[in-house]
Design goal:
Distance between the termini: 26 Å
Largest sheet: none
Helix content: over 70%
Radius of gyration: 16 Å
Length: 79
């Protein structure tokens, strides 16, 4: 239905909205936010890298990488 380029634009919108609500609710618990700060920073860096890769890769390369990740996921039994 949609290609990777459209997905890169559409998928982050509801994720950003949901995370914004969680962040606003989390200000009441600053100790928890401080403990997950490294995860938040790593996620932001990973998001920037991932978006750039998605923008640069052609669809065939993207499909191959996703297929490899699915096979690894299924082989490890992390379901």
């Amino acid at each position: 239905m949609f290609g990777p380029k459209v997905g890169v634009v559409i998928v982050p919108i509801p994720i950003f909205a949901a995370n914004s609500v969680l962040l606003l609710q989390g200000w009441k618990r600053l100790d928890v936010l401080r403990s997950v700060a490294p995860i938040i920073v790593a996620s932001a860096v990973g998001t920037v890298i991932g978006v750039n890769l998605l923008a640069l890769l052609d669809q065939k390369t993207f499909a191959i990488l996703i297929s490899i990740m699915v096979v690894i996921f299924l082989a490890r039994g992390d379901r």
